[in-house]
Amino acid sequence: MSRRTEPPSGWPPPQDAVLAGASVALRPLAETIADRYFASFPEDVQRYGGEVARAWEVHDTLHLLNWAIGAVEGYVELDREVAWLARVLDARDFPLEHLAVNLELAGDVVMERVEGGADVAGRLRGAAQLVRRTAA
């Protein structure tokens, strides 16, 4: 018997973060990343359903962006948080390569849209490599 994936519930993800003293709106970034993600992995829409797939993609990406900014600011251990998320997703049979690509897409979007975001983008790309090493 397979269980239907439910939309995210509980504690909501952060909507913004502070990088070098400036507020960064995370939701527009996460929405752009989600658009690119589903262009790469349209099968996830079929697997989970459009609304649920997008809700989870944006939810998890908001956390990833916040963690990456927190890592640059010195108060989050990004590798630990990403490793935890990878374990959760792996237990749910979610392809970890999709998580790695999501992290790379996040790095790209941060480079394009966040002033002073190079270090954040680098952390996100490094986390993608960590996921790939872990999944191998």
Structure description:
- Strands 1-2 form a two-stranded antiparallel ribbon.
- The chain has helices at 26-40, 43-48, 50-73, 78-91, 96-113, 118-135; strands spanning 16-19, 22-25.
- With 136 residues, the chain is mainly alpha-helical.
- The radius of gyration is 14 Å and the shape is globular.
- Helix content is 70%, strand content 6%.
- The protein has one domain.
What portion of the residues fall into strands of 2 or more residues?
5-15%
Mean pLDDT: 93
Major sheet: size, sense and barrel closure?
2 strands, antiparallel
Shape: globular
Structure classification: mainly alpha
Element-by-element helix/strand order: EEHHHHHH
How is the largest sheet built, in terms of strand order? 1-2
Which spans have pLDDT < 50 for at least 5 consecutive residues?
Answer: none
How large is the radius of gyration? 14 Å
Q: What would a concise description of this structure say?
A:
The protein has helices at residues 26-40, 43-48, 50-73, 78-91, 96-113, 118-135; strands spanning 16-19, 22-25. With 136 residues, the protein is mainly alpha-helical. Strands 1-2 form a two-stranded antiparallel sheet.
List key phrases describing it:
single chain; 136 residues; mainly alpha; two-stranded antiparallel sheet; 6 helices; globular
